[in-house]
């Protein structure tokens, strides 16, 4: 796993936000963001090894969610309803991505000798 610095992660975030705005500035306001890909939840411990890819996806998800939350303030009921329908799955996807980042980091730490379960404070998903 590549070593990341705060500056490196910040750079990924800034680049991804700029890219999202460039790609979506002329988007159709009726666009539905919720896709089957967002609805797909990864099984426990089935995560990517590329934390940068997960961070990029998290930034896109956050940006889309913030824009949908702005639409909730609209005076048009149909716009508000579509936004609300998009926010809930985006929020779940965001939580799943954060858990995936946690799993990547904990697994990487354990590969370097960090004891199992130490430092995760019980926040890691557990098998049923």
Strand content: under 5%
Q: Please state the overall shape, judged from the principal axes of the Cα atoms.
A: elongated
Global structural class: mainly alpha
Order of helices and strands: HHHH
**Residues in helices, as a percent range:** 55-70%
Low-confidence stretches: none
Average of pLDDT: 77
Distance between the termini: 28 Å
Question: Helical element count?
Answer: 4
DSSP, total strands: 0
Cα Rg: 17 Å
Describe the main β-sheet briefly: none
Could you outline the blueprint of secondary structure elements for this entry?
Elements lengths: L5 H19 L11 H4 L11 H21 L5 H35 L17
Helix pairs in contact: 1-3, 3-4
Polypeptide structure, described:
- With 128 residues, this protein is mostly helical.
- It has a domain of 80 residues.
- 62% of the residues lie in helices and 0% in strands.
- It contains four helices and no strands.
- Helix 1 crosses helix 3 and helix 3 runs antiparallel to helix 4.
- The radius of gyration is 17 Å and the shape is elongated.
- It starts with 5 loop residues before the first helix and ends in a 17-residue tail after the last helix.
- The mean pLDDT is 77.
């Amino acid at each position: 796993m590549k070593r990341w610095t705060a500056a490196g992660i910040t750079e990924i975030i800034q680049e991804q936000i700029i890219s999202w705005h460039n790609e979506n500035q002329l988007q159709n306001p009726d666009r539905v963001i919720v896709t089957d890909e967002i609805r797909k939840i990864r099984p426990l411990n089935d995560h990517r090894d590329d934390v940068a890819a997960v961070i990029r996806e998290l930034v896109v998800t956050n940006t889309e969610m913030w824009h949908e939350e702005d639409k909730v303030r609209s005076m048009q009921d149909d716009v508000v309803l579509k936004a609300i329908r998009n926010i809930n799955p985006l929020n779940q996807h965001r939580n799943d991505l954060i858990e995936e980042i946690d799993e990547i980091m904990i697994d990487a730490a354990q590969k370097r000798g960090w004891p199992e379960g130490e430092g995760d404070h019980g926040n890691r998903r557990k098998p049923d």
